[in-house]
Specification:
It is a single chain. This protein is mainly β. The protein has a single domain, classed as Neuraminidase, CATH 2.120.10. The protein is about 5% helix and about 50% strand. It has one helix and 24 strands. It has one helix at about 5-10; strands at about 25-30, 40-45, 50, 60-65, 70-75, 85-90, 95-100, 105-110, 115-120, 130-135, 145, 150-155, 165-170, 175-180, 185-190, 195-200, 210-215, 220-225, 235, 240-245, 255-260, 265-270, 280, 285-294. The protein starts with a helix and ends with a strand.
């Protein structure tokens, strides 16, 4: 993985990944320095039954699963650049479906399972930074859909593929925007002054957005707002940095990562009302990119 991607990872304190109906939480496990290997695992929603999914040379991150639970897409750094890979979860066969980009930062799949959305850096970018793209599920018909002066990352499609919620770095730090694909317009959703907002994801219904917010002078927290940026409610606020919200398909819970003071990223689960917090991983490794799939 290139230094540019590592730099952005440190700025946003790792990624969020959207949720899809199913029985497993997929995630990336990163070995600490000096190894920095990254492989994909999965576990039951209560944190039991951890199983390795990838064991490849290089690094793999951002797993996302089709609604039928048969196929996993992920980003891989196995050679000079980064690729979008497709894995059959039955026989674990691999196929490269996107290798035309110098650097791919993140990847997600639409709730309907028919479109990919990812942020990438390429040489024709007039802003010389990351933009958000969509493609068909086989990697074809790639389109640049969001391009702002700062890096645009963590795009998440709604059901029906009409809108993308994403984060963008502005003069006030990272903020959350809602982009309407038909009109090509983006609207600022995060409106609180002196705060940064990032890692947005649609709820299962698509009516709200869960996101992380930092008060700059305090710890991060998880919040939820409607698609106008109004009705903001706090879900959870703890001692460390709560990040990477990923809503359950039944709309009741959220899985997210926490950057502890000991610099070990962990995955937690909590109800959307802030109750029933549970730790799903341990402190032995960095655990990130949770995706609730089949």
């Amino acid at each position: 993985m290139t230094s540019r991607i590592f730099s952005i990872l440190s700025m946003v304190l790792l990624l969020t990944v959207q949720v899809c109906a199913g029985d497993f939480i997929y995630f990336t496990c990163m070995e600490p320095a000096p190894v920095f290997s990254m492989d994909i695992f999965r576990m039951n929603p209560d944190g039991t039954g951890i199983e390795r999914v990838t064991d490849l040379p290089g690094r793999e991150w951002c797993p996302c699963i089709t609604p039928d639970g048969e196929t996993m897409f992920f980003v891989a750094d196995h050679k000079a650049g980064t690729d979008i890979m497709r894995m059959n979860l039955t026989d674990r066969t691999l196929e490269n479906v996107g290798s035309s980009w110098h650097e791919i930062f993140d990847l997600s799949i639409s709730p309907d399972g028919d479109m990919l959305v990812f942020s990438a850096f390429d040489t024709v970018n007039p802003n010389n930074d990351f933009d958000i793209f969509t493609s068909d599920i086989d990697g074809g018909n790639q389109k640049r859909v969001v391009s702002n002066p700062g890096p645009d990352t963590l795009g998440r499609l709604n059901r029906g593929n009409t809108q993308i919620v994403y984060q963008s770095q502005t003069s006030k730090g990272y903020q959350v925007f809602l982009h309407t694909i038909d009109t090509g317009n983006s609207a600022l959703l995060s409106k609180k002054d002196q705060c940064q907002a990032f890692s947005p994801v649609f709820t299962a219904s698509g009516d709200n957005v869960v996101f992380a917010r930092s008060d700059r002078n305090g710890p991060n927290g998880l919040f939820m707002m409607d698609l106008r940026g109004d009705g903001v409610v706090q879900i959870f606020r703890g001692q460390d940095g709560e990040l990477n919200p990923s809503c359950s398909p039944d709309g009741k819970s959220v899985v997210f990562s926490v950057l502890h003071s000991c610099m070990k990223n962990q995955i937690f689960r909590v109800d959307l009302d802030g109750q029933n917090l549970s730790l799903l991983t341990d402190l032995s490794r960095f655990y990130m990119f949770p995706f609730w799939g089949r």
